[in-house]
Amino acid sequence: MPGTPLHPTRRQLTLLCGLALVSLGWYAVEPVHPDCLVLSGGYAPGDAPPAERYVAHQEAYEQAVSDGACGPSRPRFRTWTG
Known about the structure:
This is Secreted protein. The protein is mostly helical. It has one domain. It has a two-stranded antiparallel ribbon with strand order 1-2.
């Protein structure tokens, strides 16, 4: 049928590949925290908003890093090669 191609066009493939590349890049540079165990840390009530709990978690993690209990976060792609 003319006018309705059954195969993707070059523009669609380029857009799809570009989107996949941007997504992979975003995923690769997201910070990850190394495994560590912190027995005490920030406190936020259970009914606190998620943003408040996140801030308490981040403050506890930063304290653990400064105390030497945990390593600093690093980009995800740095963990791919060991």
